[in-house]
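Rotation project, supervised by the postdoc (A.L.). Task for the rotation student: set up a whole-complex structure prediction and record inputs and outputs verbatim in this book. Inputs entered:
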Amino acid sequence: MFYDIWVLMVEKGWTLALLRGAGVTILIGVLGVVIGLAAAIPLAILRWRRLPVLSQLVDAYSIVIRGVPGLLVIYLLFFGSVDWVQKVASAFGYADSAENAYPFIVGIIAIAAISCAYSVEVIRGALQAVPLGLLEAARSLSLTPRLTFFRVTLPLALRLALGGINNVWQMTIKDTSLVSVVGMQELMRTAAIAAGITRSPLLFYCLAAAMFFGMTAVSQILFNRAEKYFNRGFSRG
Amino acid sequence: MDLSIITYAVPFLLIGAKTTLLIALLGVGLGLPFGILVAIARTSKVVMIRRCADFYCAVFRGTPMLVQIFVIYYGLAQIGFIRHNAILWWLIGDSLHAAVLAVILNTGAYTAEIFRTALLSLSRGLIEAGEACGMSPWVIFQRIKFPLALRQALPSYSTEVAVIVKESSLASTITVLEITGHAKRLMSETFAIMEIFVITAVFYLVINVVCLTALNVIERRLSFEPRSAR
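Outputs recorded:
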């Protein structure tokens, strides 16, 4: 039995395929979270400032995305965009390259859209948790609103948001597996292909699970360290 | 928005909603007691039991639900022993049963985490008071620990219920036609992607709102405030 596994994993090269899949998973996850966060900060500020119409729109977006399964959002973006992406790409004469890059780009957009909705809530909560006294202190020093925001509010809020961002990241790296159902070649998809070809789904799905577990465990350790670093100088509890 | 699409899609989605609700109800009805049991195991004094429960929670919280559902449905079916055992095969041989099992195991791990923090947050004094009155450990659990922990855990558990409803959508990846499964089929059949998405989203939002309101009512009934006037 061990010999069989050795042949499968090493001689047939499935280890390499799985590792490459894991790399793609991490790439999608990181890009998804970073783009999601970059989009979430302005959106969260809109909600925090309670700008009329805009803040309700952000609210609606975040409620819909958080209330609906990730799978459905991914179906919407993939099936909804196939048509016009083809049109745009062939209009510019890139039909072939669009076909190859398309699942990857839409996959990242889908993951970013989902993580953004959760990040908005995290950052808004953090912005609201910044003590008012500090903002008043900044105003009494006659700092401009812009300076106050970038020097006082944002750095403090990001420290408070760290725990929430960790949760979003953990969720996002697990959500990337959903993109596999529309044909993105990440870890889960690679495992499914391997399971189909070698007819040993138990082995490959368990390996995929172990790899995901490794990713979440390592990132948890890194986040704990980051949290300790950013909380230096603050009393615990 | 084309009205004929609504009249065409809604009946299918209603059928799907039945399956989604079935999975979610079983997930809550069986996952909650199971999660509480695991939480008790995680606070147990026996090291072996605690380690096992911790391990189970770490694995199921650290891996995507999609992997879990695939391991259960495709992976376990590979083992001859399970295929020849009538009860085990009943559990994972059918895609709906496998989906329900995966949802229960997944939510059990998260529920256990919620109840573990709730159990750990109980003040020692109350438990010591129970011990001083000569209550047995079981009576202490039943009369002091559990009611207090339940009240503590309910707000977080209501988010978990919303998660269960959403996670039930993954059953569609192993051919169970629930709301998302039907929605996918309708999308590729009618090409009215946006319309179908909006209708489906309304279904999920309604289910979520109903669940959250119900839990809110329970939460309010369990809290002290309304009756404090007595």
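Student's summary: The radius of gyration of chain B is 21 Å.
Supervisor addendum: Chain B has a mean pLDDT of 89.
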